[in-house]
Amino acid sequence: MRVTALPAPEQLRIRRLGPPEHVSPLRQSGTLFLEDDYRILVASDTRELTLREDGAQIGFEPAGPRERVFFDPSGTRCGIVTCGGLCPGINDVIRSIVLTLWHQYRIRHIVGFRHGYSGLIEHNGEVPMALTPAAVHNIHETGGTMLGTSRGPQETGDMVDTLVRRRISILFAIGGNGTLKGASALADEIARRGVAISVIGIPKTIDNDLIWIERSFGFATAVNEATRSIVAAHTEAHDAQNGIGLVKLMGRLSGFIAAYATLADASVNYCLIPEVPFSLEGPTGLLQSLEQRLENRHHAVIVIDEAQLLAETGALETIRLLLNFETDAQPNLTLLLVGQTSLLPAIALNVLILEKFNDGLSHCEASGSHS
After folding, report:
1. What number is the average pLDDT over the span 88-114?
2. How many other CB atoms sit within 10 Å of the CB of residue 40?
3. pLDDT over 50 at 354, yes or no
4. Active site residue 359
5. Active-site residue (options: 207, 209, 265, 305)
6. Which end of the chain is flanked by fewer CB atoms within 10 Å, N or C?
7. Which ranges in the chain belong to alpha helices (H)?
8. Could you state, in order of their start, the residue ranges of all structural domains in the chain?
9. Is 156's pLDDT higher than 50?
């Protein structure tokens, strides 16, 4: 079994702006505070502990309330920005941040920067949105992000200039890899200038591909939506002679959505994820097993993670091989596509299917959804 290498202590160290000199407003609420020296161990078993020669115990600094804080809440100004692709739960996160800052920390100056990091560039003309409990009271009932989003880098120095000009004390950046790289660049530039601004990165991914994180927000919704597609694929495949329901799910380079959706629906016969290698051909290969399945049960449901399409044979060749089995009767194919961000576009799949099966094609599509 592969054991993930532990991070170095310096990788887990969080930079501090200075000593916390202000009493937290949460003291009056009877909140249980965390001690600064408390840590959550990274290692989960003795095998991981043996990876460090010095035997040191590496731990994360836990999130949670502290008895004393660095910023004086009465003069603190906070900003929130959302970047990259949409994900279920972004509005919930915005709402939770605003309500926590307003009601628990009594911070009254909260703004949302519009359309990603672009909103932090003054000459772009994006006016920040004032965020209050009234402004966010029902945004969790709608998808997307109330602040809008955008992709692509912006000039780091110009963004820091905006934060300084607007006297922002804390910036919450909600996004994926690119967003958090940008947040790291902002923190580095802020540290170089020696200004007191805190940058908080909130990872956004439906793929759940964050090591040491049990579940990222949006993942549960993605699994639920994927399960609905699997149910539809099974119905189509079952009602067709030698029908195959092929469900392609998002996941980037991990198979969490595919694996969890498969566990949630026992009608899946094959689940192909990048973490588990498999053979297409040969006596123990997928194609041989699929052929036997069709001979015995006359239908099958396959769930495939988008990353698994990057097999050594190539994405298109993988699908061609997957369809190139021999049966007494030409199978119909039920194809459900969830998401459009795979390296294998939906149209390519459709063309391959039409090339293989000119007759009896059953096509049920759920494309375009980011779950």
Report:
1. 96
2. 10
3. no
4. no
5. 207
6. N
7. 46-49, 90-99, 133-136, 156-165, 177-193, 219-238, 256-264, 286-297, 315-323, 346-356
8. 19-67, 71-204, 219-356
9. yes
Coil, strand or helix at 336: strand
Amino acid at 365: E
Q: Which long-range contacts (CB under 8 A, 24 or more apart) does 348-357 make?
A: 348/315, 348/316, 348/319, 349/248, 349/319, 352/316, 352/319, 352/320, 352/323, 353/323, 356/323, 356/324, 357/323, 357/330, 357/331, 357/332, 357/333
pLDDT band at residue 115 using 50, 70 and 90 as cut-offs: very high
Fold match flag (71-204 vs 219-356): yes
More confident residue, 244 or 135: 135
What angle in degrees, to the nearest 10, is found between the helix axes of 177-193 and 156-165? 60
Say how far apart CA 157 and CA 186 lie, in whole Å: 8
- For 334, other C-beta atoms within 10 Å of its C-beta total 25
Q: Whose structure tokens read 């672009």?
A: 118
Beta-bridged to residue 198, according to DSSP, are 170
Q: Is domain 71-204 in CATH 3.40.50.450, yes or no?
A: yes
> Would you state the structure tokens that stand for residue 233, as one six-digit string?
């694929």
Domain over 219-356 is classified CATH 3.30.70.120:
no
Distance from C-alpha of 93 to C-alpha of 95, rounded to nearest angstrom: 5
Mean of pLDDT values over 91-100: 97
Contacts of residue 52, defined as CB under 8 A and 6 or more positions apart, other chains included, come to 6, 58
For 302-334, give the DSSP string.
EEEEGGGG--TT-HHHHHHHHH----SSPPPEE
For residue 247, list its beta bridge partners: 303, 336
Q: What size, in residues, is the chain?
A: 371
Distance from C-alpha of 175 to C-alpha of 184, rounded to nearest angstrom: 12
Match 């959804």 to its residue by tokens. 369
Average pLDDT, rounded, for the chain: 81
Backbone phi and psi for residue 85, each to the nearest 5 degrees, phi listed first: -70, 160
Counting Cα atoms < 13 Å in the Cβ hemisphere of 49 gives: 7
- 350 compared with 299, residue with greater pLDDT: 299
Q: Is the pTM of this model over 0.70?
A: yes
User: Amino acid identity of 151?
Assistant: R
Give residue 37's identity as a one-letter amino acid code: D
